[in-house]
Amino acid sequence: MTNAFSLAPLFRSSVGFDRFNDLFETALRNEPGSSYPPYNVEKHGDDQYRIVVAAAGFQEEDLELQVEKGVLTVSGGKREPKTENVSYLHQGIAQRAFKLSFRLADHIEVKAAGLSNGLLNIDLLRVVPEEAKAKRIPINGAQKPALQH
């Protein structure tokens, strides 16, 4: 009996970093029904990311995006249909409520979101403040020590 262990669930719910201890915990809590709606997490450059959620049948007013404590939550719920005299012979387009959560790494900000052709695009950007960036310190051999006793 061989068990194949896939790391894919670990990287589905995180954007911008690869911290295994948090990711393992997230993968263990991952419910089997959390694959609706399908989505992609794309990297478009060193500091640019995009989450694409397949939101067929949803309109802008049916979707909500929220960032709180480093977690991006995308939720959606279909409102009641406006036409009362509709009976379905076949209803294959899923319009059930959903909630997706993505843990964002430090300095990842949501820059834009748009709904087009049934796809919700959420653009993310890593914006590292100057004080958090690495600084190169010059070494001057002829300089006297700054501290004197």
Automatic annotation (TrEMBL):
Transmembrane stretches in the record are none
Keyword Nuclease carried by entry:
no
Q: Which InterPro entries match?
A: A-crystallin/Hsp20_dom (IPR002068), ACD_IbpA/B (IPR037913), HSP20-like_chaperone (IPR008978)
Q: Which residues form the SHSP domain?
A: 30-142
Recorded hits in Pfam families, A to Z, give: HSP20
Tree of life domain: Bacteria
Instruction: Provide this UniProt record's keywords sorted from A to Z.
Output: Stress response
Homology family:
Belongs to the small heat shock protein (HSP20) family.
Q: What is this protein called?
A: 16 kDa heat shock protein A
Q: Which organism is it from?
A: Pseudomonas batumici
Lineage start: Bacteria, Pseudomonadati, Pseudomonadota, Gammaproteobacteria, Pseudomonadales
